[in-house]
Design brief:
Elements lengths: L2 E7 L7 H19 L7 E7 L5 E2 L2 E2 H10 L3
Parallel strand pairs: 1-2
Antiparallel strand pairs: 3-4
GO molecular function: isomerase activity
Family: Belongs to the 4-oxalocrotonate tautomerase family.
Protein name: Tautomerase
């Protein structure tokens, strides 16, 4: 039974129910197409992480996003 974990830094606005449903359906289809897994055997977990708890290059995602907004990106 495959378990697919999708980790996202929470954003504003957060991912909608429809977007999450599309991620679940897409990951399930990928497991079916690539590994021949039955959809009913695939479990998908979406883990939204607070951007203060996610870092890259020594800075939190909150700081990186703020810097990107200030730079116009």
């Amino acid at each position: 039974m495959p378990l697919v974990t999708i980790r996202l830094a929470r954003r504003d606005p957060p991912a909608s129910k429809e977007q999450k449903a599309a991620l679940i359906a897409g990951a399930t289809k990928l497991m079916q197409d690539v590994l021949g897994k039955r959809p009913e055997d695939v479990t998908v977990l979406i883990d939204e992480i607070d951007p203060d708890n996610w870092g890259q290059g020594g800075e939190s995602a909150t700081v990186l996003r703020q810097r990107r907004r200030e730079a116009g990106g």
